[in-house]
Specification:
Elements: E1 2-4, E2 10-12, E3 21-26, E4 30-35, E5 44-54, H1 55-60, E6 71-73, E7 77-81, E8 89-90, E9 96-101, E10 106-111, E11 120-123, H2 140-151, H3 155-164
The protein binds S-adenosylmethionine.
Length: 165
Amino acid sequence: MIELMDNDTPTIALPQHKLQLELRTDERKGRGVFATIPIERRTLITISPILLFPHEEYNAHGQYTQLDHYTYKWKDGMALALGLGSMFNHDNDPNVGFMRDFENKLIRYVALRDIAVDEELCISYGANLWFEDATADGDDRKQQIMQQQSDSEDDMAWMQMVMDG
Ligand SMILES: C[S@@+](CC[C@H](N)C(=O)[O-])C[C@H]1O[C@@H](n2cnc3c(N)ncnc32)[C@H](O)[C@@H]1O
């Protein structure tokens, strides 16, 4: 929820601490986010404020650093999600969707379906991966989901499409 204070600057609630999540490490994927309690579909998992790198700065420096494994496409450049947002691994059948909020410079992460205890919380990075996907299985529908996310300008529309199944 976003509230405007008297001076019109937004105050953004950060409810992430209500959910009991863990960081666990996988040999192939590195660190990832796991549920320790059941999470219901449509639950807001976390909100990550972003750090924006303008295109010029990113092209000159960022793309040659570790940042390139973590950044999201943004309106005017590339964005690093602060906090848990940078820890979600990729799955081509994701159980977590994300919505970029360009105006408030943050990303909201929402459960796309019910998530069980010990399940990893994964997002889709889209169709153009830069690493060997440890979870790929070549399923047609999943490939289609990835491609549609890559093509979509609208995170909300993509999430709706996945949730409608
Ligand atoms: C945004 S980071 C995710 C957090 C990362 N695992 C860590 O430990 O910092 C993205 C990186 O995680 C790894 N990764 C994410 N999803 C993966 C997957 N499905 N298969 C293999 N590696 C994955 C890749 O090395 C990728 O560059």
